[in-house]
Each structure stands twice: as C-alpha cells, then as structure tokens.
UniProtKB/TrEMBL annotation:
Binds 1 zinc ion per subunit. The gene is rsgA. HAMAP family: GTPase_RsgA (MF_01820). The lineage of its organism: Bacteria, Pseudomonadati, Pseudomonadota, Betaproteobacteria, Burkholderiales. It comes from the Bacteria. It holds the Pfam family RsgA_GTPase. GO terms for biological process: ribosomal small subunit biogenesis. Residues 106-253 form the EngC GTPase domain. This is Small ribosomal subunit biogenesis GTPase RsgA. One of several proteins that assist in the late maturation steps of the functional core of the 30S ribosomal subunit. Helps release RbfA from mature subunits. May play a role in the assembly of ribosomal proteins into the subunit. Circularly permuted GTPase that catalyzes slow GTP hydrolysis, GTPase activity is stimulated by the 30S ribosomal subunit.
Amino acid sequence: MIDFDYEALRRLGLNNTIISRLAGISASLPGSRLCRITEYQRDRLTLHDGAAEFSARALPRLLAGSPLCVGDWVIAESNALNEVWISERLSPMNQLARADAPPIASNIDTALLVMGLDGDFNLRRLERYLALSASAEIAPLIILSKPDISDDADEKIAALIARIPPGTDFMKINGTDPDSVAQLNGWLGAGQTICLLGSSGAGKSTLTNALTGALQETGGVRHGDNRGRHTTTARSMHFCPSGACIIDTPGLRSLSPDSLSSAFDDIESLALQCQFRDCRHDGEPGCAVAGHIDPDRLRNYHKLQREVRRNQQTALDRIAERNKWKSLMKSAAVRSRMKRG
Ligand SMILES: Nc1nc2c(ncn2[C@@H]2O[C@H](COP(=O)(O)OP(=O)(O)OP(=O)(O)O)[C@@H](O)[C@H]2O)c(=O)[nH]1
Ligand SMILES: [Zn+2]
C-alpha cells in the first residue's frame, strides 16, 4: 500500500494521470510514500510528501535507468536507520530534456521562456527554447522581462511577432513590479507546475522571488517558500501562495567558450580594437568596449567568462589561482603600509 494525502499532494501538482500510474507500482515496505522531487543537486535529492521536505537518495537500480529530475513523482521508503530511499519512479507525463544532457524537469504544465528586452534579447536562442518545449509537448509562454529598462521594446516585440509561430503566447513583465507580475496569475492555479527557462541574468530568480514572495502555510504544504533570495545554481521547485509550483533552472547549457563567444560576438569583435590585447574593459585606457556596450550586459559577460574559466579549471588550477591572489593581496598590503609609514 502506498500512502498519500491527495489534498496535500494536489497542491504539489498531483493529478489523476499520475495517480493512475501508481497502479503498476508495488511498494516493498510499509510506510512507502508518494513524493515529488523538489530539488536535485549533484547526488542530493530533496523530496516533498505534501507535509514536509526531506533529503533522500535513490536506490542504485534507479540510477541505472533514465535519470531522475526535479518534478518527478517517486515512491520513497524509510529504512530502519531512518534513511529515506527512492525505490520507484512514476513515468513522467512529459519531460523537458535535450539530447546528450540530463533532463531538466518533468511533469510541467507551462514552460515560461524568460528573455530580457535588453541585451539578453536573442530570437535564435528563444527558438531553441521553443523547440525544447514543443518536443516535450509543453505549452510555452514567452516572458519578455525588463521592459522598464529597454529603449527599443516595441521594435524587439515586432521582430518577435514576425518570428514566432502564430498564436504563441507572450507578455511583457517587469519582474520588479508586483502589478506587472500579477499578469501571470492565470497560469498559477493550484497544482499547476511552471518551469522557468532562460539565460543567466534574464530575470528568472527575480520572477521566482516575486511569485513566491509571501510566506504562508496552507494545508500542510509550505506555500511561499523560505529558500530565500537566490541565484539559480540548481534546479529547484518553489511554491506560490496561489498553489502553483515553480521550477527555476540555471541557464540552459553548461557554457562552453564557443557558446559564450557566439552569444557575445558584439563584445568580442569590439575587443579586437582595444589598445591592450588582454583588456578587461574595466576602465583601461584605449578600451573600445566599455563605452559601447550596455554595462549590465558587460557585467553578465564577465560573470559568464568566470564561469567558463571555472568549468575548465582543475582543482589544482583553482588552488594556484587562489595562492596567486593571496600573495598579490599581501604585497599590495605591504606596499600601502610602506606608503603610509
Ligand atoms: N529593471 C528590471 N530589472 C530586472 C527585471 N528582471 C530582472 N531584473 C534584474 O536583472 C538582474 C538579473 O536577474 P536575475 O533574476 O538574477 O536573473 P536570472 O535569470 O535568475 O539569472 P541566473 O540566476 O544567473 O540564472 C537582477 O539585477 C535583477 O534585479 C525587470 O523586469 N526589470
Ligand atoms: Zn577593452
């Protein structure tokens, strides 16, 4: 017998299709529970059973099959040591996944494709996200963020309309304005699962924070969540006061130097004209980039560059870099002491 509290789990997205899939599952231990995966970070899984969230691990036999992901419905069993193990996974209704990469999220009602009306605006990238949601048969909703800081929003929206399939929903939303965010209410009914996709800096966390902001407890499920403000480093599920579940994801692919160059080819081609070959576009003399590129976009570029570098570094490289910094800081401190003294 598998225990579950329908009312509580409905707020986590449980529906009749998933329940019907329980039929084929036989639980081996008494106290087996139906749960949803709310976070997946390296080998640490977090589950919610409608009453509480807790950590769990997957039985090796599950790890051998198709990978688990946030949004999956699973059966959890506790052993005598009070460890929670995932023993079964219910086949998902749908799944956002790319070839050759772990799945992003499953059992999704709407994919929110978040794209800034600033330098983030990129119709080719948007088409990749549209293709991704179409291949999973998940309804897309395009969110054009940062309308308040865009000076050519109308032109961008005209280009968007000319490019996307007719009938594709889109809306302008300023994630920092609650009235603007309220336009999303229609998509946030109880038990709806929304997945946010978009590049780093597009405004996904801002939107998640705005949508989950209010803290309140309802029916045993923690709605409005206390993960606090975050930048997206892991895929995780958050709960809205309205009863919807939001899955926030980090930028789609782990970045490669090539993908960074193609996304920022304007910066990289201007950089060829900087006076110094190793110019960091941070106030150096003869810099061709700094004055010509939106400062926010330049900041994001630097952030992503650091990310790429970190991905390429080995642990030894990182230690060497830290030591180099330490000795630089030390000699700078000595110099300033000498100046003062
Ligand atoms: N003016 C304005 N700023 C916004 C809006 N949405 C997001 N921002 C700002 O844009 C920056 C990046 O937003 P985030 O929400 O952190 O972006 P993200 O998509 O979560 O990025 P990652 O966590 O790196 O994946 C932050 O400084 C936000 O305050 C908006 O609609 N208007
Ligand atoms: Zn420069």
